[in-house]
Amino acid sequence: MTRKIGSNKFLNSVKERNKKTLVLLNTNKGIKYIYQENFNNGTFRITKPGNYKLYEDIVFSPNKQYDYKPHPDQLNYPTRGAYVLGFFAVITIEVSGVNLDLNGYSISVSEEFNQHQRFASIIELGNSPFNTKQGPANFGELNKAPQNIVIHNGKIGLSPHHGIRGNNNKSLVIRNITFENFEVAAISLHGCSNVLIENLYISGVNKRVFSLSQYSQCLFIMPFLEKLLKTDENYKFNNKTIREIYDEMILDVKNYKEYVFTNTDYDGFFKNKKLLPDGNVYGILLSTKGVAVGDMMEERTEKSIGNENITINNVIIKDIISQSVQIKGIKNDKRSLEPSYVGKFITGPVGDVLKINKVMDDENKYKGDCLSDAQFILSKRLLEFPDEKYGRVSITKQLIEWAESGSDFDSLDLYMVNDHDSMGHVMKGNHGIFINCGKNINLTNVTIKNVENYGSDDNRFIDNFKEFENSGEILKETVIIRGTRNLGVKARKNEQGITNIIRGYKEMPEGQENPAIGKLFIDDRYVAINNTVVNTPREIGDQVLLKEKGEKIWVIVSRKVENDIKDKEDKSKLSSGICITGSESISGKNIFCKDIVSRYGNSHNILKKNINKDINI
Q1: Same-domain status, 136 and 256
Q2: φ/ψ of residue 446, rounded to 5
Q3: Residue 509: inside a domain
Q4: Residue 522 resides in a domain
Q5: If you average pLDDT over every residue of the chain, what do you get?
Q6: Which of 93, 171, 288, 523 registers the highest number of CB atoms within 10 A of its CB?
Q7: What is the pLDDT of residues 563-575, one digit of tens each?
Q8: Exposed e or buried b for every residue in 496-535, given b needs 16+ CB within 10 A?
């Protein structure tokens, strides 16, 4: 039988033979090919210099039998060190002099891995994701940063964190790559210098993020709960045993995974209804040495290390979009945060901030959830048995007593800190390119489109009333102490006939302050009181009268965004095409920014913050 030259089967056979011939020739030239099978048991670690080339598309999904984590017997992946939180990268480049040719293929993680390991990049330029003694856990020693690295010609796909991430690298080239479906940044470089980034298409964040941050925090906290279970499964916090707390968490994780993988109904603790990342996101992040978790750098000084001599050329960035969920953390005093990973925040074992505003009822008593119960019980255990190890838990005895006694949080002398994410990072907004304390950075032919930030405030009850928020408005919640003039404001119809609009403040008896000043604004529209929707003046009055004078009344209003002047300035809600802060000698030409949007905050095509010198864009 004569084979048809044009048949797909025959052509594929010819291509495969040619491909194998080419591989043989290249192998003889010293090129090391990378196959899917090289990832079956974990990260592909490049520890010898040379030329590396992908043979095929790579989908990272190792160790399914161990929940996609390293097994303790895999000594190549030290779980008391760099792999303490699991596989942090698909490929690590740990040595200088590496040329990684993606060869037209793609690298991504599987959805299964993505749901089991929420902290990972596709390519990490080092043996550890953090500098020594940095990060939310003990990641061991970061070896000398590799230099003279080229990564080029392919696609970098689905990742729970970054596409490419590096610390302190020099002489780095990233060229001819498409990035997609990341959740933090396509490229994140810290302390790097002599870098060329060119011919990139960064096509945006993952818009199918099924979970909020508390899901990954529960995954990371479960090994600590299992440790306590083996020690004393009857140990209690707030009349719940460790067994009950653990089983509740396991059940919610199980229900969540069934929702993701089998499309079953789920409306639980982990569900991300907007399907967008819940932190700030970036196309390209460039910062000095160290974690970029603090505030925007004020000024470049002699102590600034790296982030210099960088060229960005022929780059398209689009769809840098997130919902930027703020978290109110707590600390023990009013001193400014230290420049460490979590500063003075009160956290669980892996830097997971205690979301204090989310675990209280309307009387400021502890109501808890499976994550906060876990954080509390580990902290309580550590205080009673200090020789046992439970990561970096730091919840105080005072807080534990508050939670277990059912008392009012306001009775504690504790200070809440806003504008941070669930890991205590200072939120800095969404940016196509973020240059933090850079020097000698040149941008040419850069297009940035659709940077969008839908971040709002950290609220306790507002999620139940989002349907009442109109376009151009933001829901705000506050507590008013009922006074002699009740809430202290007058409400009536506006010009459009809409009722329940605050039109003025009531006069107060001499010597008394109006409780609404600074909390309720003129033109605010009542939405709910005491967590009950109010539509008429009578309903407002009925809800107010449910409380005695001197008692707290929770009020939710819808406010015009332009009136929300103070909170609109929050950096967490910021959007920019390019943000330059504390930098010097930054130049650019042929820069195009379009559709830079913040729903509740400020937006800029080009934003210059703090002390900059010689900026020409």
Answers
A1: no
A2: -115, 125
A3: yes
A4: yes
A5: 91
A6: 93
A7: 998 888 888 999 9
A8: eeeebbbeebeebeeeeebbbeebbbeebbbbbbbeeebe
Q: What pTM value is reported for the model?
A: 0.92
Domain boundary among 523, 541, 567: 567
Is 22 within the bounds of a domain? Answer: no
As a whole number of angstroms, the distance between CA 522 and CA 514 comes to 14
Write out the H or E segment, with its range, that includes residue 492: strand 489-492
Give yes or no: residues 431 and 477 share one domain: no
Give yes or no: residues 165 and 237 share one domain. Answer: no
| Statement to judge: residues 186 and 307 lie in one domain | yes
Residues spanned by the domain of 244: 213-271+327-420
Same-domain status, 132 and 255: no
HEC secondary structure over 311-369: EEEEEEEEEEEECCCCEEEEECCCCCCCCCCCCCCCECCCCCECCHHHCECCCCCECCC
Both tokens assigned to 402: 């508050």
Contact 365, 406 (CB under 8 A): yes
Q: Give yes or no: residues 518 and 442 share one domain.
A: no
State which of 436, 453, 470 marks the end of a domain: 453
Query: Using CA atoms, how far apart are residues 104 and 53, in angstroms rounded to an integer?
Result: 10
Q: What percent of the chain has pLDDT over 90?
A: 76
Percent helix / strand / coil, the chain, rounded to 5:
20, 35, 45
Paired tokens of 289 = 């040495």
Give the tens place of pLDDT for each residue, 338-396. 333 555 688 999 989 999 999 999 999 999 999 999 999 999 999 999 999 999 899 99
